[in-house]
Amino acid sequence: MACFIVPVAEAVVTTIITKVVKSKEKEEKVKVSFADGVVEDTTKIKFSTKLGWLNKLLWGGSALLAFEHIWHGEVVPFFPFLTAIQNGETADMFAEMFSAGVTMSVLVTAIWVCMLIVSHIIEKRAVHEVKLTEETL
Amino acid sequence: MTLLITIFAAIICTVIWYAGAYKSNMKVGFLCWLYWGASIMWFVDAIFKYAEIKAKFFNPAPLDMLNDSFLGLSVVAFGLLIWLINILITDPKGVIRENLFKKVEKTKLQSKN
After folding, report:
1. How far apart are CA B28 and CA B16, in angstroms?
2. A80 preceded by a cis bond (ω within 30 of 0)
3. Which of A115, A107, A63, A67 is nearest to B46 (CA)?
């Protein structure tokens, strides 16, 4: 019906947060060991970049989901834009938004959090390997 | 079928992105985010549908399957279209910019002659 509206709303909020975080962030340089054993000075991935991953997931998913809703005739190009409102099924629409829509947003965010944890582990390991090589030298 | 087709598109794009991550600047990563985002959302949709119709979810009518496949392919095409527009606007290889500048140079030379 209109479940994609919830991820869209989240995407709007996270995009604004990303802009604010980006304007306040500073570059952090670290020494990193790459897969081929080369140690190089690099800049640490900014949190705004990581927030960008969530934005892309939310905007991308919502765009394709919106296409599906147009396909099924649930979204129309004229006011009130949602056929559920037009047919007096507003309560059902809100129920679907709170069940499926919220679950979609929560799952996407949970997967993004997992990605953050994995990237943090990879970053930590790469920095730790440099420390070990420096200690052995 | 829509979910399955989108997941396959997401996997193929991720493999292409990983294989040429440093060599290519075709922004395949953009497609990965697009398809993975949609796959997660449709996965949730599938769970809710399964909770509603139980085992019938795995035995769709042939016509429904055909319709869903058609939608899945259209979704993949729509995703590719968004990616293409993004590529043409951001122009990571500078192809469009180069062509436009060439045109300007040519017109300048013609006007001088």
Report:
1. 7
2. yes
3. A107
Q: Alpha helices of chain A — where are they, by DSSP H?
A: 5-24, 47-71, 83-86, 90-96, 102-136
Q: Which residues contact A39 (CB under 8 A, 6 or more apart)?
A: A31, A32, A33, A130, A133
Q: What is the ipTM of this complex?
A: 0.85
Q: Provide residues of A within 8 Å CB-CB of chain B.
A: 3-4, 7, 53, 56-65, 67-68, 71, 99-100, 103-104, 107-108, 111
Q: What is the mean pLDDT of chain A?
A: 87
Q: How far apart are CA A53 and CA B19, in angstroms?
A: 20
Q: CB contact, 8 Å: B38 with chain A?
A: yes
Average pLDDT value for residue range B78-102: 89
Best to test chain A binding among B41, B73, B85 (most A CBs inside 10 Å): B41
Residue with tokens 């590719």: B80
CB A82 within 8 Å of CB A2: yes
User: How far apart are alpha carbons A137 and A130 in whole angstroms?
Assistant: 11
Report which of A91, A18, A86, A97 is spatially closest to residue A55, judged by C-alpha positions. A18
Residue A136 pLDDT grade (very low, low, confident, very high; cuts 50, 70, 90):
low
CA distances from B3 to A65, A68, A69, B10, B33 (A): 11, 11, 14, 10, 15
What's the pTM value of the predicted model, to 2 decimals?
0.86
